[in-house]
Specification:
The protein is α+β, with helices and mostly antiparallel strands. The chain has 5 helices and 19 strands. This is PRC-barrel domain protein.
């Protein structure tokens, strides 16, 4: 799960050739599906029109990059005419008013959370109530409508709300923690980060198995870990991981 803000600015890496093919510039929201339909890509070719990456072609989202199989996953609006309607609707989510079905204003959306492993589904929205500095989280099943100006939620939304501290461990640590608890907070963060890294690596492993190495992979001392053309196996993945070359391998493969 990612905050929408964490996606912006990420490099987009083609695993086929290990190249950075652009960066995430914006998100296109599909309000009917409650999902990020596409990422808007800045690849330095704006004169060719808006370039987009459909969420369904994303292999993984890490702290450094969004990975895709190849640059061919990035396309233009001409190839996806349905996106024109979404652009006209211009639903941004962030900055919209949060309104119950009976018209009660309960806040303004400040962030939303995306399930990058489920084609960009929006899983929750964060909002701040008037005259309050404490953000609240409303899950997607409490949202009735994602609109351009208003996020409509169910009338009894209070039963669904949580705060950032209890929402899937995504909240930033409280800066005013009791004495002696700082180490525990750091340890929990380390556990969360380790689990996220493990899941991302596992997805990468499943993608890499059976592919071919497109560039010789060596240790810092010149020991050859993999030759160009080698088939990637579990044994090879373990070897390059122990040598700290897992990322380099993942960026230098072909089908």
């Amino acid at each position: 799960m990612k905050r929408s803000g964490e996606l912006l600015g990420l490099a987009i890496i083609s695993l086929n050739d290990g190249k950075e093919v652009g960066r995430v510039n914006d998100l296109i929201i599909n309000p009917e599906e409650g999902a990020v339909e596409c990422l808007v890509v800045d690849d330095g070719t704006r004169y060719l029109g808006v370039r987009v990456l459909p969420s369904k072609f994303i292999i993984g989202v890490g702290e450094y990059a969004v990975t895709i199989e190849s640059a061919t996953a990035i396309t233009t609006l001409d190839d996806l005419p349905d996106l024109s309607d979404l652009l006209e609707k211009n639903v941004k989510v962030i900055g919209t008013k949060v309104l119950t079905k009976k018209g009660k204003l309960i806040g303004t959306v400040s962030e939303f959370y995306v399930d990058e492993e489920n084609e960009g589904k929006i899983v929750a929205c964060e909002f701040t109530a008037p005259n309050s500095n404490e953000p609240k989280i409303v899950p997607a099943d409490g949202v009735v409508t994602f609109g351009k100006d208003v996020l409509v939620v169910v009338e009894d939304v209070d039963k669904l709300l949580t705060d950032k501290k209890t929402f899937s461990g995504l909240a930033e640590p409280d800066t005013q923690v009791p004495a002696g608890s700082a180490q525990e907070t750091e340890e929990q963060q380390d556990e969360d980060n380790s689990e996220a890294t493990r899941l991302f690596e596992e997805r990468q492993r499943q993608f890499l198995l059976g592919r071919k190495v497109s560039k010789k992979i060596e240790t810092e001392k010149g020991e050859v870990l993999a030759e160009e053309g080698d088939i990637i196996t579990e044994e090879l993945l373990e070897k390059v991981k122990r040598a700290g070359k897992f990322t380099e391998l993942s960026m230098n493969t072909r089908s």
